[in-house]
Amino acid sequence: MTDGQGRGAVERRRAIAGSAVGALAAVLLLAGCGSNDDSAGTSEATVSVVASTDVWGDVVKQVAGRLAGGRVEVSSIISDPDADPHSYEANTQNQLALSKADVVVENGGGYDDFVDTMLKTAHNAGVQVLNAVDISGHKAPAGGELNEHVWYDFPTVEKVADRVASALSRADRADAGTFAANARAFVAKLDGLERSEAAIRKAHAGEGAAITEPVPLYLLQACGLVDKTPSDFSEAVEEDTDVSAGVLKQTLDLFSSHRVKVLVYNEQTSGAETEKVLAAARSNHVPAVPVTETLPAGEDYLTWMRDNLAAIGKALG
């Protein structure tokens, strides 16, 4: 997002939903009813998995292991490391993939509503749909909004991996043991990431952090850091709405008063307010750590999160 693209998240999601519905007629010509092959429960058949983003797509690949790209075909709708998932516009190819999928993994929580919109018209009665936010058990706080960026919450990712193993096992019973073993191995590596969070928490619990959007909050909270950013600022940046002069000043004052030790910002979005915050961090010698909503090029989920934790630990010193 850049200045001048002043559409809020609700308007963007409505536009995405409209695009998805408008694409249906073309897809029906290509896919018919798009029902699954009845042989999907055997090891000889290909299990088709569609994920809303490459983050969840990679979790599926970790669980599928050596079968990914072979008996388990995994595709991710959003895989561009420079893309902003909030403003993604679904297309007919996405609808076709969803109409033929055996398993769909979506983030949920309003993050990728286009998936649900397209599934309603995909005529794919047998598809297994895994919603990460629902699986997480996270709820919106009283009077607040749910933080839907649950892939930064390792306990949630563990739960999703277990559910992926179960879904793949239902679609390919012969390889159920492989999926279960791969999920256990992946969860063990996630436990290692949680130990890294605990090490940061032990050294820096209670220290202040600033954000531009709520994207990394689960990770920062697990590291024991306290978000000092005015909620009106981070919510406005995420929703692409105006930030009042008073709220902006409160945010910039965090750096000049040294109430925060680190700024963790979403580098996939930009705007005047974000640039002012980055400038304030630089001028007051507060380290800034970039994070993203999709996988950086050439990285898998585990490497990505190891890098994020290493960068935060280094910034805190």
CATH class identity of the largest domain: Alpha Beta
Give the count of structural domains.
2
The helix content, as a percent range, equals: 40-55%
For the largest beta sheet, what order do the strands appear in spatially?
2-1-3-4
Instruction: Give the distance, in angstroms, between the N- and C-terminal Cα atoms.
Output: 32 Å
The name of the CATH architecture of the largest domain is 3-Layer(aba) Sandwich
Shape: globular
CATH H-level name of the largest domain... which superfamily? Answer: Nitrogenase molybdenum iron protein domain
**Order of SSEs:** HHEHEHEHEHHHEHEHHEHEH
User: Structural class of the helices, strands and pairings?
Assistant: alpha/beta
- Fraction in beta strands: 5-15%
Query: Would you identify the regions where 5 or more consecutive residues have pLDDT less than 50?
Result: 1-43
- What fold name stands as the CATH topology of the largest domain? Rossmann fold
If helices are DSSP runs of H or I spanning 4 or more residues, what is the number of helices? Answer: 13
Q: How big is the Rg?
A: 20 Å
Sheet having the most strands = 4 strands, parallel
Q: What number is the mean pLDDT?
A: 87
Q: What's the total number of strands?
A: 8
